[in-house]
Amino acid sequence: MTLEIGTVDLTMDEIAGRLAAAFPVELSAVSVQEPDTVVAHLERTRLKDVARRLKELPQLAYETLNWIAGVDLGAQLESVYHVYSWRTNTYLELHVTVPRAKAELDTVTDVWPAADWHEREAWDMMGIRYLGHPDLRRILLKDDFVGHPLRKDYVDLAENHPHA
Amino acid sequence: MSDMVPDRLKIGYPKLEKFQNPNVITTTADFVFSWARSNSVFPFTYGLACCAIEMLSSGFARFDVARYGMEVFRPTPRQCDLMIVAGTLNEKMAPVLKRLYDQMAEPKWVVSMGACATSGGPFYDGYNVVNGVDKVVPVDVYIPGCPPRPEALFQGLLELQGKIRQHSFAPVLPGAPEDAGS
Question: Is residue A83 within 8 Å of A112, Cβ to Cβ?
């Protein structure tokens, strides 16, 4: 498979309009926030379905996942997917919120294999559990680490410092 | 530069002209072997963070640690006798550091380079940071700085050379005081 790079010439407003039209229910607050980035909020139950369709979307075809970020919003946690369309050379930033008490999301590793390590990192640092991930282990911290340190309510625990 | 080196680190050499004729040198085995050993230290490239950049630049031509006989940085612990821990040690890395230290052949030394390796430094409160490599392995010389310049590293290595030269090869006999012969 060869990548088609820059073959589709669309303005950012046209891209945002096409996305809003293709996903009228799933996406909300679609806006252009950077010269090359469309930002949108996505209903979490539709995540995998939307991811699959985004990759196949005519002309736009968000084929590459750049990274996944975790955000602590207080009552909610947020998983931010940064995906890239080679045909238009633009980014799409998908914000998916989950309740803090039940931080679970579908995995997108079967759509974008690059999500593997990023989901492990988000699990490691923010405690967002990605259901269906093939190997959801900690990736940066040691396996017996207690807690998720980038959550705002994390307090440093003595058992995480065996060498103190 | 020679004025900056403390007397206890200086080492006396016989004048070259005394070797013009066949000659006999009388010395102690401790002096000769410690002198040789202190000038052929093989450092272990244990760079963990930005201090490693200073450590590497110490090895190249501008600063040139080869002047002290330490230019052969080895990537395996089995060929090294000096571990320069340059950077932040975290809890996940600590068992690895201990294991690599254990794999080094005796005698061996450890230099803690920079604030992080010495105490945790700016990451003292970090959720995954070990507050000093001396929690894991015994440290011979601590070098302050964030990161230390190559000159500071050399000062620490000169201190270490002074320490190596105090080493004795005489076996400690049973019942003898621990510091016998040193």
Answer: yes
**Rounded Cα distance, A26 and B91, in Å:** 42
User: A160–B136: do the CB atoms touch at under 8 Å?
Assistant: no
Cis peptide before B107 (omega within 30 of 0): yes
Does the structure show a pLDDT above 80 at B5? no
Cβ contact A164–B128 (<8 Å):
no
For chain A, the average pLDDT equals 91
Residue of A141, A156, A163 lying closest to B130 (CB–CB)? A163
Domain A12-145 has CATH 3.10.129.10: no
Interface test with B, best of A137, A141, A161 (most B CBs within 10 A): A161
C-beta neighbour count of B130 within 10 angstroms: 26
Entry pTM: 0.80
CATH architecture of B40-165: 3-Layer(aba) Sandwich (3.40)
Neighbouring residues of B125: CB distance < 8 A, sequence distance ≥ 6: A156
Cβ(B94)–Cβ(B130) below 8 Å: yes
Show which of residues 32-91 on chain B sit within 8 Å of chain A, judged by CB atoms: 91
Instruction: List the structure tokens of A106.
Output: 């579908």
Domain boundaries in chain B? 40-165
Give yes or no for B136 touching A (CB within 8 A). yes
**pLDDT tens-digit series, residues B34-78:** 888 889 999 998 889 999 999 999 988 899 998 888 878 888 999
pLDDT (tens digit per residue) in A104-151: 999 999 999 999 999 999 999 999 999 999 999 999 999 999 999 999
Residue of B nearest to A125 (CA): B127
The interface predicted TM-score (ipTM) is 0.78
Check A163 against B127: CB less than 8 A apart: no
Domains of chain A by residue range: 12-145
| Residue contact B91–A156, C-beta within 8 A | no
